[in-house]
Design goal:
- By secondary structure, this protein is mainly α.
- The protein contains 15 helices and two strands.
- It has a single domain (about 5-410), classed as Up-down Bundle (Growth Hormone, Chain: A).
Length: about 425
């Protein structure tokens, strides 16, 4: 498949929107992680108990995960450009308002509102990329989004932490929330005006139709396994580096930052390479599944080596980042192709909802295993097995990577212009 001049020009025209989507995801992860960084300061100032703090930290995931199943429907039913803008406005205001609260109940409400607002982000991104980016540029576009996610962890953990140490937690929440609002006028100016993807007699998938697809369950299982690795690293990597590898706080910060940088660069690079081979004429199925198999296998082997060879953990840790990034670039590229533009929101919402259950399982299971064994060998072995399962799911459970024929299912799609 050769890339035409029109395709290249179209991708360049989409670049401002892609950059804004990446910034949106970066801010998404900064905002959701700020409370964890502020927890020690916030607990002392507001006089809340450890159990109340635990409820606050978990509250985001209550609404975020539950709303995935609603957000996908909203994205497919209404103009995606305005759905993401509304969600962004809600979560930015929730972040800013958090800086003013004085009691547990209002703080809990803001965390619940943050989860509702942020729930639209990935369904919207998938809908927009499925609608406006051709298959052979979609790996790179998804790689950029996933890279921003990983950079958000670094910026949130270390950037916000430094600012809180200097100015306190309240000014940081207020400042981040209000400054983030500058994204909205930029989005209104450069949001992509996707053409209609169908007419009023086009049928699209309902939730039941999606759940009947074997490929949906394969993608959801594979996504869960990728999310397990992500949440394992986000929640336990600093502790592992300090307590088990005996790094200082400054060395830990540097090592963790380099890991996320490797992960981010790998996501963009592998996405671009996969697009190159698709443009060369290789099938989407072959290319996307091959990249997933290599990525998950690399991460699994490197994770096992981290556990088995602790004295040479650093290069193996970076290899985990390479494999993680390779797998990340294709996660939503699969759903965008399989669902097609009309159903990408619903499919992504469902898939992301199931996958985020890893955020409940991975941190708790890791903590339990560390308590029982006194080290990270067992948690790393568990993560290795999860990654192997993920590779199997992407390669063998997911079918051919092409749009499902929804013609005989679903509800009527309103093909009106999107801008």
């Amino acid at each position: 498949m050769a890339e035409t001049a029109d395709d290249s020009q179209s991708l360049r025209a989409f670049a401002p929107a892609l950059i804004l989507l990446a910034i949106c995801i970066l801010i998404n992860y900064v905002d959701r992680g700020n409370l964890s960084i502020a927890a020690p300061l916030l607990k002392d100032e507001l006089g809340i108990s450890a159990s109340q703090l635990g409820i606050l930290l978990a509250a985001f995931f209550w609404t975020y995960t539950a709303m995935q199943f609603v957000s996908g429907w909203l994205v497919d039913r209404f103009d995606v450009n305005w759905v993401i803008a509304a969600g962004y406005l809600l979560w930015s205001l929730a972040t800013a308002t958090t800086g003013f609260v004085r009691g547990f109940a209002i703080l809990l409400t803001m965390r619940l509102m943050l989860g509702i607002g942020e729930s639209v982000a990935f369904p919207c991104c998938s809908k927009i990329l499925a609608r406006d980016v051709p298959e052979y540029h979609r790996g790179f576009a998804n790689g950029v989004i996933q890279s921003a996610l990983r950079c958000g962890n670094v910026v949130g953990t270390f950037g916000s932490g430094l600012l809180m140490a200097m100015y306190g937690w309240r000014p940081v929440f207020i400042g981040v929330g209000l400054v983030s609002l500058l994204w909205l006028p930029a989005w209104i100016k450069w949001m992509p005006c996707g053409s209609a993807t169908g007419s009023s007699d086009v049928k699209i998938a309902g939730y039941v139709d999606i759940l009947r697809q074997r490929s949906f369950w394969g993608a959801s299982l594979g996504h869960f396994c990728a999310a397990y690795l992500l949440y394992f690293m986000v929640t336990w990597l600093p502790f592992y580096l300090v307590r088990e590898r005996h790094l200082s706080m400054s060395s830990m910060t540097m090592t963790a930052s380099v890991y996320y940088l490797v992960d981010a660069v790998s996501a963009i690079t592998s996405g671009r390479v996969s697009d190159f081979w698709i443009r060369k004429g290789y099938t989407t199925t072959l290319v996307r599944k091959t990249v997933m198999a290599i990525g998950f296998a690399t991460a699994a082997i490197a994770m096992a080596a981290c556990a088995a060879r602790p004295h040479t953990y650093l290069p193996w840790l970076m290899a985990v980042g390479v494999g993680s990034g390779m797998g990340a670039a294709g996660i939503f590229a699969f759903s965008q192709t399989l669902a097609g533009p009309q159903a990408a929101g619903r499919w992504t919402g469902l898939q992301n909802g199931f996958a985020n259950l890893a955020g409940v399982v991975a941190p708790a299971l890791t903590g339990f295993a560390v308590d029982r064994t006194g080290n990270f060998v067992a948690p790393m072995a568990i993560t290795t097995v999860v990654l192997i399962v993920g590779a199997i799911a992407w390669v063998f459970v997911v079918g051919r990577v092409e749009q499902v024929n929804w013609a005989v299912h679903g509800e009527v799609y309103d093909g009106a212009a999107l801008c």
